Amino acid sequence: MRKIAIAILTAVFVLFPSLISAAGISVIDGHKITDKKELHAKLAKDLSFPTYYGNNLDALYDVLVSEKESTVIKIINPYALQRKLGKKYIEGFFAAISDASDENPRVVLILSSK
């Protein structure tokens, strides 16, 4: 059921981006991110994370769970990101966002090849 909901949200976002009202949107392009530090810096900047954000997967989960507004994280070229940061890290990255969205329905993860 959750996969269906994500697929529907992805379709709505792609076809009608003006319908999505989100307080924070971060578009991460796997071709442009070079390391973990850059990934976390982009997320923190795009989503206005607090200054105490710890720049790691546990901190990402904690911040996303506490978000009060809609937050969309769109990953473009996820396989390129995986090649650069490693399969294990990216699995943890996606798990942190997925687990946070289970706790906080305002958090949405979108994966796209373009």
Describe this protein's structure.
The protein is an alpha/beta fold and 114 residues long. The protein has helices spanning 2-15, 36-46, 57-65, 78-85, 87-103; strands at residues 24-29, 71-76, 107-112. It has a single domain, classed as Barnase, Chain D (2-Layer Sandwich). The protein is built from five helices and three strands. The protein has a three-stranded parallel beta sheet with strand order 1-2-3. α3 (57-65) runs parallel beside α5 and α4 packs across α5. The chain is globular, with a radius of gyration of 13 Å. The two termini are 25 Å apart. The model has no long low-confidence stretch (mean pLDDT 86).
Question: Globular, elongated, flat, extended or rod-shaped: what is the shape?
Answer: globular
What's the Cα radius of gyration? Answer: 13 Å
**What structural category characterises the helix and strand content?**
alpha/beta
Q: Please, what is the average pLDDT? A: 86
The CATH class assignment is: Alpha Beta
The helical percent reads 40-55%
Give, in order, the helices and strands: HEHHEHHE
CATH architecture: 2-Layer Sandwich
**How widely separated are the two ends?**
25 Å
Q: Could you tell me the strand content as a percent range? A: 15-25%
CATH topology tier name: Barnase, Chain D
DSSP E strands, number: 3
The count of helical stretches stands at 5
How many structural domains in the coordinates?
1
What low-confidence regions span 5 or more consecutive residues with pLDDT below 50? none
Main beta-sheet annotation: 3 strands, parallel
CATH level 4 superfamily: Barstar-like
- What spatial order of strands do you see in the largest sheet? 1-2-3
